Amino acid sequence: MDPGSERARRPAAAWARALGxxxxxxxxxSKTLPYVLDDLAEARGAHPALESEFESVTYAALAARKNxxxxxxxxxxxxxGDAVCLLMPNCPDYLAxxxxxxxxxxxxxxxxxxxASTALCHAITTSRPHHIIAAPGYVRHVAEVRAxxxxxxxxxxxxxxxxxxxxxxxxxxxxxVRALDRPAPPSxxxxxTALLIxxxxxxxxxxxxxxxxxxxxxxxxxxxxxxxxxxxDRLYNCLPMYHSTGGVAAxxxxxxKGGTVVVRxxxxxxxxxxxxxxxxxxxxxxxxxLCRYLVTAPARAAETRHCLRLCCGNGLRGDIWEAxxxxxxxxxxxxxxxxxxxxxxxxxxxxxxxxxGHVPSFLAHRFPVALIACDELGAPVRGEDGHCLRCAVGxxxxxxxxxxxxxxxxxxxxxxxxxxxxxxxxxxxxxxxxGDAWFRTGDxxxxxxxGFYYFVDRIGDTFRWKGENVSTTEVAEAICRCPGxxxxxxxxVAVPGAEGRAGMAALTVGAGFALDCLRATxxxxxxxxxxxxxxxxxxALETTGTFKLVKGALAREGFAPGVxxxxxxxxxxxxxxxxxxxxxxxxxxxxxxxxx
Length: 596
Prior knowledge:
The protein is α/β, with parallel strands linked by helices. The chain has 3 domains: 3-266, Rossmann fold; 357-458, Luciferase, domain 3, CATH 2.30.38; 462-590, ANL, C-terminal domain (GMP Synthetase, Chain A, domain 3, 2-Layer Sandwich), CATH 3.30.300.30. The protein has an 8-stranded mixed sheet with strand order 2-1-11-10-12-13-14-15. It has a 7-stranded mixed sheet with strand order 7-6-5-3-4-8-9, sandwiched between helices. Strand 13, helix 11 and strand 14 (333-337) form a beta-alpha-beta unit. Helix 10 (288-296) crosses helix 11 (318-328).
């Protein structure tokens, strides 16, 4: 067979499989992933579904655990729409818990396990939960903000009893493994909300995106088709299960096809290839930063002893794509672009290095994506007719996706956030015709002549660092709580040799300010990836006519010392303090001799 013709057929086959997988999904159906698991337990009962460092859980055992959590939810009188926050590390019980609770109609908020203090309080409060389930290692973080939470929340420590009398003990072994009877008529249908997954969006603190049972199934079956998953596949997943990729798409895609997911609590660059090889994994999911860590890590014998056939993920930049694929002998890379709440999804089935995706011409009507011109502040540019301007080939613009009516199934749906105002801000109206509505991704892209899309940057107030979206507003608010800080603006800056953009803060300060106090404040209130790596102490900060801080020029100037007579500092992670940047240190950073 001609290899060239085989490569040409592969993308079309992937799209055909994915479309075929979701063709029968119905937003009005009672078919949800918890019930799909019941059917799988009968068909694949003794086959391993999830394998962690500590246990192997078969399909039958996973369904049994799901039933135990469902019976717990039933005992707590959890009704359709009632929210439960879940704060646990990657493990089989994480999936079992949310499957069981959502089977009864509960809405499970998947809380980022890196959060603490104000950010954690915001995430919990936004979810409006009746209950919080936390693993023992995270109880302390919740306890620290408990006084700021609504008083009617019940707190549950999962697995073991807590010494704190405010926490109940959730011991699933007390509940029957027998499946609950399926109600008739069904109390839960696919269009109902199953999960709240947090995304930083383009402004403010993280927003809780609504994810319906339909979208859970759609993601699962779609990725199963794109990756051509079968019962013999074993997928390595070290991405956090509170994210839509690591917690829904990776797990669901494998499970609906009867395969096995090897779950790891966290990523380890030093042990990655040994683990993948030892576990005989055929697939793994990545984020770009993970791939960069692996490329820059020392060579290991196991890095080419694996039996991987494909890796799938997002954020793999062109500058390391080919080195990554060649060094580790990865047969196929499936890069994609998507967001938890968004309706713009792109897939690079062709394996073109650096491209985030491509929409085949025969599917353009089903996946309407456009790039529109924006001004320097990220606002859409409109023509004399009041409609937005489409970008020419090669021009940079914001990616948007046309929104369909709520009753229409398919990937163009926008289910929104728990915050109605935040939902409305993501919708752009009267774009190309009166009355039309499009979802704003907040991402700048360009498209080449062949129709491939390339990510350029984020619009507005977020940047991506260490595989996480960081809200500049959240970081700035934390900085301003430090004594002596009078104003702060936060933005992302490119760092040679690193994926994404590192956080940088420009400050004006007064009496009582100290850098060590600033660092202590940030360590206490923000996860490590959100803390600014660079700090600039300024005499003054520029504002617009509406008193908004201007960050464009600051971001362009970066962290080069001597600009404007300001002082520049870098967080020396090894020393645990800020270090002033001089010309020699700046040169070392720019030459990639210092890694972050």
